Every structure is written in structure tokens, then in C-alpha cells.
Amino acid sequence: MSAPYSDVIREHARHPRNYGALAAPDIRHEDVNPLCGDRVRIEVALARDGTVAEARFQGDLCAIAKASASVLTELIRWRTPGDVTEDELFEALHADIPPARRKCVQLPLEVLQAGIRRRATR
Amino acid sequence: MFVSDDGSIFGSVTIGGCIDARVIEEAAASAEPHVVHFQLGDEDAWEIGLTCGGGVDVLVERLSDAAFDVYETAKKELDAGRSVAIATTLKGPNAGERRIVDAAAVQSGDDVYVEVLRPPVTLYVVGAGEVAIPLVAFAKTLGFRTVVIDNRPRFATRERFPDADELRVGIVSEIAGELRYGPTTPVVLVAHDYKVEGPVLQRVLAEDVPYVGLLGSRRRGPAILQLLREDGVAEEQLARVRVPIGLDLGGQSAAEIALSIVAEVVAVMHGRSGAALSARS
Q1: Chain A within 8 Å of B150 (Cβ-Cβ)?
Q2: Does B177 contact chain A (CB < 8 Å)?
Q3: Nearest alpha-carbon partner for B151 in B187, B207, B195
Q4: In a 3-state reduction of DSSP, which class is residue A120?
Q5: Would strands B54-60 and B241-242 be described as parallel, antiparallel, or unpaired?
Q6: Which of B148, B149, B152, B202 to mutate to test the interface with A (most CBs of A within 10 A)?
Q7: Under a CB-based contact definition with an 8 Å cutoff, are residues A36 and A60 in contact?
Q8: pTM (two decimals)
Q9: Would the CB atoms of B151 and A37 count as touching at under 8 Å?
Q10: Residues of chain B contacting A59 with CB distance shorter than 8 Å
């Protein structure tokens, strides 16, 4: 672990992976942190076996939230979308996230999970 | 100025209204189109509180259905965001006749008056914080359309912005990509949030907008611009960003800052510096 802005966070915030939209996503969900204004939309296209074939995100995001969304879209590829845990995401960021900024990391994952739930109830 | 049969009026010929009363009398007296010359001698001008005097020619006429048709056509052009010019014949048997013309091809003269109408200014306000509230109210008074954009639904509300023509809530950078830009769409960024400022600035600096202002200090502003520079935005585009935003009015409250911003927008739209008139030689 290192400072809040680890090399991983800096790199993904500056050069986010999978930023954009999918033409026909199976899962699409968007939400906002009403206080800070972090807003993210996650889109996922599933393969026939139910694993994630492609994932994209878009939004107005601080550096930590953008890095979190970017790393998340890499982590979930070829896994079932609900597989990635919060601990795994925090670990992948290699950063010592202070309590006040944990929400920034959690938001993209919460949006993905909400999208999965919404799809399940359709 | 329009004067109805019942005497009610809409608009005016002059700012002070001294000519207007006489125009109303003329309108009531004759239905035939005719040009009336009003001359204010220095003595008259002094008597009514002016010190300049001068003269003005006013076309007085009863509006025909044909004239209304021309105005309807003009309104459609304006609603589509395009400027339109109306030429009105002032003299002869066709006095009062109007037609849509190419403003570049016809100029006002003794026989024809060309009125160029421009679409209303649409002010894009990015960020629905405290400064945006009086800013939108001032803009409304100026006749601007206003579009307020924010990613936080609890900020961009109708309760906070009763005067806004449009409230857009969502991914701000995405909304910025959907807006229509042009010479009548100044953009004000008062979000004070780098996660929306960068993407929005990148978008609007690629467009022919007359004004781009960014709320931020002399330290923060250059830092935002440096990020854009690293993303490849050209220096001449970065130079268009007015940061710190607004004229130097000295105010500190949200309303005072908003006033300085809207004053700068007006000055820039008219190609002026915003300096005091009394300081001009």
C-alpha cells in the first residue's frame, strides 16, 4: 500500500481503460454521489456463458473514482459480473485510500451491482 | 414599438419615452404608412432633461397581415438559431412593405430600413452552485435563454433555478457534447470541479463560442489549463478561457460575482472591455 494517489490511480485516472459506451449493452446503469457529483455509467456486454465480454464506463469522476471504474472494467472481463468484490478492487488500486474517499472507489462497483440487480428483476 | 387599438403598447422607440408619446399620437391619427421626423432642438431637449437634442425618423404604420406573415417567417428562422434581416420600404406606394433579405446585400437608406434580428443569446451555465443562481436570474433579465447543467440532481432543481429555461442533469461531459454551439452561445463554467471542467472546456474550445469563462483563482485556473495543454489543446484555444472569470467589480458575494460574470459576458458579446464609460476619452 502507498499514498492515496498510487501509481495505479495516477495511471488509470490519466489514461482510463474502457472509457466510452457499448452499442448494445446487457447491463447499463448510472448513478451519482449526490454530494460530490461523481457520476458514472457502467455498461457491460455478456458472452453466451454469462461472463463479461466487454465493459465500458463514462462519467464525471474524480481521479480516484475514475481509476476505480477503469480498474473495475478490467477486473470483470471474462468473469461473471458480480464476481468482483470490494476488497479485490481496493487491493488492485494499490493505494491507502482514506475513509473519506472510500466512497470514490465504491461508487463504480455499487453502480455495477445495482445494474446487475436491475437486470435480474426485469 | 407596437401600439394596439386600445392604446396598450409593447416596446419603445426611444429609451426615455419623450418621442414615444408623440409616436402614439401619430399612430392613432393615421392608418397610412408614413415617416415622421421628430426634431428635438436643444431648448426642447433641455426642457425634458436631455442635453443632447437630435432628430429621429420614425415609420408609423398599421401592421398588415402580410407584415405579420413576414414576422412569422422571421420568428421561425430565429427559433432555428439563425439570424434574419427584414427590409421595410419607407417611401412611395409600397411604403410599409416588408420582405426577408440577405443582410449583406441590402443596407438601410432613405428608402428602406433593414432590421437585422439575431437569435436570442443562450447562456450555458455549467455548475448549479450558489453563483449560478443569481447568474441565471441576471441573464434572464437580460433576455438570455439559460441552460443550467450539473451532475447533481439536488443542485440543479427548479426550486433553485425558477428562471432557467432548461435544467440538464446527467454526465456533464456527455451533455456538453449534445449542446448546440455558435456565436450566440456563451459558456460559463462555475462548477469549480475539475472532473467536469476539463472535458467541457475541451468540447467548447473546439467550437465558435463568443465567450468561455472559468470560475477559479489565479492559481487554480492555470493548473486546469495545464491539464488541457497536456491533453493537446492548442495555446490559441487556451487563451480564449477567461480565468479568473468576470470583471473586476470587487464584490465577494455570490450575487456580486454573478454580476461581474454576466457583465463580462455582455462586454465580450459587444466587443468591449468592460471599462468604465466615464474613463473613456
Answers
A1: yes
A2: no
A3: B195
A4: helix
A5: unpaired
A6: B152
A7: no
A8: 0.80
A9: yes
A10: 171, 173
Q: Residue A46: what residue type?
A: L
Q: Which residue has the cell 450555458?
A: B124
d(CA B218, CA B205): 20
**From the list B154, B171, B193, which residue is nearest A58 (CB)?**
B171
- Cβ atoms of B200 and B212 within 8 Å: the answer is no
CB within 8 Å of B226: residues ≥ 6 apart: none
Separation between Cα atoms, residue A113 and residue B226, nearest integer Å: 36
Q: How confident is the model at residue A1 (pLDDT cuts 50, 70, 90)?
A: very low
Cell 465500458 locates to: A56
C-alpha angle B178-B164-B160 in degrees, rounded to nearest 5: 115
Cross-chain Cβ contact A32/B199 below 8 Å: no
Residue B154: list chain A partners with CB under 8 A.
Answer: 34
HEC states along chain B?
CEECCCCCEECCCCCCCHHHHHHHHHHHHCCCCEEEEEEECHHHHHHCCCCCCEEEEEEECCCCHHHHHHHHHHHHHHHCCCCEEEEEECCCCCCCCEEEECCCCCCCCCCEEEEEECCCCEEEEECCCCCHHHHHHHHHHCCCEEEEEECCCCCCCCCCCCCCCEEEECCHHHHHHHCCCCCCCCEEECCCCHHHHHHHHHHHCCCCCCCEEECCCCCHHHHHHHHHHHCCCCHHHHCCEECCCCCCCCCCCHHHHHHHHHHHHHHHHCCCCCCCHHHCC
Q: Is the ipTM of this complex over 0.85?
A: no
The answer to whether the peptide bond before residue B186 is cis (omega within 30 degrees of 0) is no
pLDDT tens digits, one per residue of B135-193: 999 999 999 999 999 999 999 999 999 999 999 999 999 999 999 998 899 999 999 99
Q: Are A57 and A73 in contact (CB under 8 A)?
A: yes
Distance CA A55, CA A41 (A): 11
